[in-house]
Write a structure and sequence with these properties.
This protein has helices at residues 16-24, 32-41, 95-107, 126-131, 153-165, 181-194, 218-228, 287-307; strands at 48-56, 66-73, 83-88, 117-121, 169-175, 208-212, 242-243, 246-247, 253-256, 272-277. The protein is of the alpha/beta class and 308 residues long. It starts with 15 loop residues before the first helix and ends with a helix. Residues 28-308 form the Peptidase M14 domain.
């Protein structure tokens, strides 16, 4: 969200003109088709891969730019087994969420195939992935848009796909990152767009989870933290006992009201829900470590559920 300070008038919410000015500053930096779709295609011999939607943005030039959305499912659906949802790339710029979902499909999903139907949507926001953005081309945050009559195509498509599964989810793992750019780019842009003042919180050095305040499942979250701690370091609370402005519920865990806030993690009534927050900007974290942490979240969480 480069040069966002040059857009609009301070204290006035953006209109369509300002949003178009913001969009004109965005540029493609990597390829969804080369980085993500190619990996999904390589999984077709092991899974059922379905296209569950296609994103088209008249705001973009050329207007013919379309992004197909893919979901990875078991080759044999077991109606008597519980269903688990894994989502990545709801915020497209959060790289390890996308590649963590794919890595889980490639390296670990088969271990749980007898116990669960596992459904993986690895990249919910392809344009955000390509332009390294939190928003979509209409300056809308898909991860605040999971509700009826949503303005975000990305959120609508995913909600429709999940509804059409026709089952209740036992678990939902929503894979995210917290980055230094959250404070240097994305929160300032949010403040400008909405004509609000935002006090930037400290970016925590390490991994943490966001549980659901309406259904926290503290033991489930703790089991995941224990598993991830074998891969990467867990974020401590700040001097206020908080992480990103929210009170610490237990080591490495905060809670949000996910459904009320329109978060992806609140799109279902799954018994077990968690949102990951990997910290890729840590001096000690490698891209592969961040991906491995995302995989450890899912395997640790599924291991906990199997023990119940």
């Amino acid at each position: 969200m480069t040069q966002v300070s040059t857009i609009g008038t301070a204290g006035v919410k953006w209109g369509e003109t300002e949003k178009q000015q913001w969009l004109a500053l965005q540029a493609v930096k990597r390829s969804y088709f080369d980085d993500v779709v190619s990996q999904i295609d390589a999984l077709r011999s092991e899974f059922t891969v379905e296209q569950y939607g296609e994103l088209a943005y008249p705001e973009l030039a050329p207007a013919t730019t379309h992004y197909p959305l893919f979901v990875i499912k078991p080759t044999v659906w077991q109606a008597d087994k519980p269903t688990v949802l894994v989502t990545g790339g709801v915020h497209g710029y959060e790289t390890s969420g996308v590649h963590g979902a794919l890595a889980f499909a490639k390296t670990a999903a088969a271990q749980y195939a007898d116990a669960f139907n596992i459904v993986i949507a690895p990249c919910v926001s392809p344009w955000g992935y390509e332009t390294i953005n939190r928003w979509n081309p209409t300056a809308t945050d898909p991860n605040r848009s999971f509700y009826t009559n949503s303005p975000a195509q990305e959120s609508v498509a995913l909600m429709k796909m999940v509804k059409e599964l026709g089952v209740d989810l036992v678990a939902h793992f929503d894979l995210h990152e917290t980055t230094d750019s959250d404070n240097t780019e994305f929160r300032p842009a949010l403040a400008a767009r909405d004509a609000q003042t935002h006090d930037n919180w400290n970016i925590p050095d390490g991994f943490y989870l966001v549980g659901d305040s309406e259904n926290p499942q503290a033991e489930f979250q703790a089991a995941i933290i224990a598993g991830v701690a074998n891969v990467t370091h867990i974020a401590p609370a700040d001097d206020k006992g908080e992480i990103i402005g929210a009170p610490l519920e237990q080591f490495g865990v905060i809670n949000y009201a996910k459904t009320k806030l329109g978060l992806c993690g609140g799109l279902s009534n799954a018994t077990y829900k968690t949102t990951t927050e990997v910290y890729p900007d840590s001096a000690t974290a490698t891209p592969q470590e961040c991906i491995a942490a995302q995989v450890a979240v899912i395997t640790s969480g599924l291991g906990f559920i199997l023990q119940q």
